[in-house]
Amino acid sequence: NNEQTKFPEGFLWGGATAANQIEGGFDEGNKGLNIADVLPGGKERLNILMSSGFNFEIDRENYRYPNHEAIDFYHRYKEDIALFAEMGFKVFRLSIAWTRIFPNGDEQEPNEEGLAFYDRVFDELISYEIEPVVTISHYEMPLHLVKEYGGWRSRQVISFFENYTNVILKRYKDKVKYWMTFNEINGALKMPIMSMGFSPQNEDDRYQETFQAFHYQFIASSLAVKACKDIIPDAKIGCMILFAPVYSYDSNPENVIYALKEEELFNFFCADVHVRGEYPAFIKRFFKEKKIKLDIQDGDLDIIKEGTVDYIGLSYYMSRTDKKEKTQEEKAQGNIVGGVKNPFLKASDWGWEIDPVGLRISLNKLYSRYQLPLFVVENGLGAYDKIEEDGSINDDYRIDYLREHVQAMGEAVEDGVELMGYTSWGCIDLVSMSTGEMSKRYGFIYVDKNDDGSGTLERKKKNSFHWYKKVIESNGEVL
Ligand code: BG6
Q1: Residue 101 belongs to what domain range?
Q2: What is the dihedral of CA 79, 82, 83, 89, to 10 degrees?
Q3: Which residue's alpha carbon is nearest to atom 4 within ligand 1?
């Protein structure tokens, strides 16, 4: 009986993925290359991509490219969607690969084969009453735009993105009602390459270039929001923020103000612009201190003001504990998002600190600042899984992680937060973004594929599959 559940009726339970991490078929259907297609496998992949001599070419002699085949969702989507339906998914978050629609990014006319592929996927989802939640850009910038235009360094990219979004909004207007513009837009503050398509080559230019690119992305995002409201009046379109709440290491006011300022910059700056349609007051001082001067042309700020989002999508994996002065050793023990070790938290095998209460904190912080619906569109545990002799996969550690995070969301709902849904990351095993590994698994569904590329690609249900089915069935009551 839904009336008695914590989670509202119609809560959007499901799972989340990105095209480049699941589809494969990297050169099929006239698809063009994107930034993820030149990402080698292995833990050094992002450093290789960001190194100054990197030429954005595929080099099969020296590297493997796990995203090229990924888990072959391109050919197996029917089987996968049937499994999502069996778990009772209400929604499935996926991204559209920009280069399936515009292989180079700067063409005028779209590629029909790419458009037809997503029609088939959306139709399949809808046949099970699963609503697609579409990320327009998830670390998949066309490689041609990276090489020829310097990625989001260039104002010209706004019009290419606008063309792309108009095409997909019109094409899928009857099939897709939930949209998001840029995945983890603020993540570029740590590493711009995947979402912005460039790496500043010297520290002095870093902020200037990153914030200029943000400005162009804000315009592009707002144009997409405006187009979405025109083309699909009953749709909801959101932003997507990588949210990692920042805790002060201790009660020393110097550390408290440091943590607060870091949080403003990392967690709230992009969200403020997306939600309020204007640059926040606090950023002026930062721009002055870092000598940032933006190319803001007539009309830019009006577009940003008019294209504010309907909801805030967020990814949540970890919190960050920080202090003003830290030694190299302390820094090395921090999370992937920075900071130092939090003595109260345990970490995953990849060093990501596990903090369910941090999710409740994040949702409270976001809701009290914006009073806009929130949608947790990524959360999950990357872990090694083992297949037992009887074929079962007992991923109780994953169930524990997810249970605690769902409980934390339930608390946040009771705190008064308006929460639309939850799509756990990598609901089917996929290629890890940061390491290119298959062995960093997130799924309810196991995919027989190994780090060296071997494996049958066969799908198997893990214990968590059965657990999540019950969670959805009971609207979050049976955990
Ligand atoms: C998010 C990204 O940062 O984290 C995903 O949006 C990514 O693309 C996910 O896969 C988990 O990170 P990783 O490195 O474990 O794949």
Answers
A1: 2-473
A2: 140
A3: 433
